[in-house]
Amino acid sequence: MTTMTDREWRAFLSEGTRLAHLAVTRADGRPHVTPICFVLDGDELVFALSPGSVKGKSLARDGRVAVCISDERQPYSFVTVEGPARLSAEPDQIRRVAAGIAERYYPDQPAADLAESFVHGGFTAVRIGIAHVIAQSGLG
Description:
There is one protein chain. By secondary structure, this protein is α+β, with helices and mostly antiparallel strands. It has one domain: Electron Transport, Fmn-binding Protein, Chain A (Pnp Oxidase, Chain A). The protein has helices at 6-14, 54-61, 91-105, 111-120; strands spanning 2-3, 20-25, 31-36, 39-41, 44-49, 64-70, 76-88, 124-129, 132-139. Strands 1, 2, 3, 4, 5, 6, 7, 8 and 9 form a 9-stranded antiparallel sheet that branches. The radius of gyration is 15 Å and the shape is globular. The protein starts with a strand and ends with a strand.
């Protein structure tokens, strides 16, 4: 097992179409974990929330989150990111996040079209400030 360098974990997060698993806490204290499409944007991990989601309600109440991204192939690797989440309903923010997600996860669809559908669909942009990282490779 090896600890990844800053450059290595950033490359790991940007490679392919891995899903992240977002962990939040519900109002009654129960944990909630859900997969998300995401993009690394500088020192922030960004994604979009659909209207009325459990994760959106949880983040509006408590912005502390953890996200784990793993590799399903041996030798296994993972990156866990912790930090505060900031939510934005600003159309330009939603477009930027949605366009990045479209380019990464839906390359056959025009990014601008998907971005506009997120804006008109009432999505929220989320930016997690990367405060703490645990990144390991060569597991198993």
